[in-house]
Amino acid sequence: MAWVRDWSRRGFLRAGAGLGAIIAAPALLTACDDKKAPSVLKVGDQRGGLQALLSAYPDDKPALNYQVEWAQFPNAAPVIEALNAQAIDVGAVGDAPFGFGLASKAQIKAVSAYRSSGEGTAVLVKPDGPVQAVADLAGRTVATSKGSIGHFLVLRALAEAGVPVDKVTIAFLAPNDAKAALLAGSIDAWATWDPYTALGELHDGLKVLVNAQGRMPGLSYLLSTPAALSARRALVRDFVARIDRAREYSAAKPDAYAAVFAQQTGVPAEVASLMIRRTNFHPVALDDGIIADQQSIVDQFAKVGLGGDGLDVRPAFERVL
Questions:
Q1: Which of 40, 245, 274, 320 has its CA 20 to 30 A from that of 230?
Q2: Which sequence ranges form a coiled-coil region, renumbered to this chain (predicted)?
């Protein structure tokens, strides 16, 4: 049941033709007034989270002369593909997609890590539907994105409830398609993450069956590639430092970040506020504990036949940037 994917540049461009349009219309952040043409760092973001984060941080001052060219993605899988195809230099993903990408032999490296509560990663169901406990998923269908944090939560929740994975149909759908299927009654549950979780709760009348709090490491990463680190290490280092400062600021002033996130992404203000207050990402060192947490994710995927057997994740961490 291992996932076979063409990770080549041609395969990526064939599978994700929309990326060109996304990258072709970048938002640029100019670093300084130097007359020399600045370098460019291409950053893959999800739903505008990092871009809004930097916009909300009032003291964001790049130390080097470069611009950020943003590419926005709906979830983590295409971010991993874009990194592996060298279409972007840095990308934001969760711990499960990072592990799934490594198992698929993507050439990626973690350059920074952030931990959250995990509360915003959840399995959503209809309040009056047939699934009222994780055990009720046996014989039912749950949708999520393959290799996502939602996928990993499903595996963890089923194991915790003693439900064999082969007793549940896992349908791999993009977030918007999964939500539509759940609301239409075509599936019984949907495993997703914020802002989709918050939107489902506040605007679609869905309820949380189980969330990732206490069940998953709750890690998120900035990833880069060997090629980008070789050519633009100083820019990657500066960008990571800027994100770290902005994360600390947003933890202290979540309403400021929520307001900018809502304005820039079009997400309703109450959804942005719920998402940011309960997620509360904070920077953590790339230490042995983080690496052990990541190894556990790869091992879990391997256990259910999704690849990565015997994979050692340690080389995928750039502990000294």
A1: 245
A2: none
> Which residue from 118, 76, 100 is spatially nearest to 313, judged by alpha carbons?
100
Is a pLDDT exceeding 50 seen at residue 91?
Answer: yes
Do 9-116+218-316 and 122-211 fold alike per CATH? yes
DSSP, residue by residue, 196-209: HHHHHHHHS--EEE
Q: Which amino acid is at 174?
A: A
Residue 92, SS3 per DSSP: strand
* Domain range list for the chain: 9-116+218-316, 122-211
282-284 β-sheet, strand order: 66-73, 39-46, 90-94, 219-224, 109-115, 282-284
Residue 96: both structure tokens together: 């499960």
CATH architecture of 122-211: 3-Layer(aba) Sandwich (3.40)
Q: Which residues contact 170 (CB under 8 A, 6 or more apart)?
A: 141, 142, 143, 144, 151, 154
**Which of left, alpha, beta for 37 (phi over 0: left; psi -120 to 50: alpha)?**
beta
